[in-house]
Amino acid sequence: MGFRTWTRHVTIAFLSLLIVSMLSAAGVSAAYPDHEIELVAWASPGGGSDLMVRTFAEAAKGIFPVPIYVTNRPGGAGATGMAYLAGRPADGYALLGVTNNLVFTPLTQPDVRYDASDFTPIIAFGIDAKVVAVASSSPFQTLADLVEAARAKPQSVRIATFGVGSDDHITGILLERAAGVRFQYVPFSGGGQQMASVLGGHVEATVTEINEVLSQIEAGNMRVLASATERRLGGFPNVPTMRELGYDVVVPKFRGIVVKKGTPADVVDYLIQASTQVVRTPRFQEYLKQNVIEPAEITGEDFEKLIADQVETFGAILKELASQ
């Protein structure tokens, strides 16, 4: 073998090893995803957060090449779900369905170990409407009726919420302050339980999302007194906003998906691209419309900014609540 031939063989061998080395360095993320993905609902079955992730998993069929299965990790206004995801590997095989309780809960519960900085935002796909709802049999026909009952007898009006420090709770506190009254809050681990507590007469009202009570409204079992939105809801033109009624309370609620911080950048990019496709499917768009959720496609850094803006807007009241 001549020197040139030997050199050529050595060069080819070196380049081959280099290519293999580069592919090896890419590791698992180069083949992502190669097995099923867990999508965590941080609420109990039957609530809005549960429906949200189950619809996403269903709509993802044919877009993600592997199955997405849902598990429920309720408790602590989302804290249990956050802790669960934080304990999983940062490999993109565990995702968490979130709302703005990702911001609210850590700021109001000092014992919560994790906050938004421990997760990488993937996509916020909708903005939800917060409402005050009562049973159809309730004597409260208007928000003014509810407020006046609380004014006449402080803390006599019981309000079901998703938990201490949740956006439900904060909406109630903002209404309290705007109206100069006091409510009594009863925490639950999911929207389904909140709704059941109202229908069972265990509480006078609930602060929740419109989609949590939509089926009961359509069945004639509940009614909405007011919304904490900038403008009236498209599907409920007769429901006034709190601002219209003289209470400056607006609490936009995002819905979306995050992954554990430290997940490889290429996996994050894949999840953003694939999740955006899922959100655009007719099945998911139908879910948004049926549940009166304003569609959105807020991804990556833009989603991070949305979270930071909510920290700035609600941070003071949240920290004050935590110190009580």
From TrEMBL:
The keyword Protein transport does not apply. Keywords: Signal. InterPro entries: BUG, Bug_dom1. The keyword Flavoprotein does not apply. Residues 1-25 form the signal peptide. Belongs to the UPF0065 (bug) family. This is ABC transporter substrate-binding protein. The lineage of its organism: Bacteria, Bacillati, Bacillota, Limnochordia, Limnochordales.
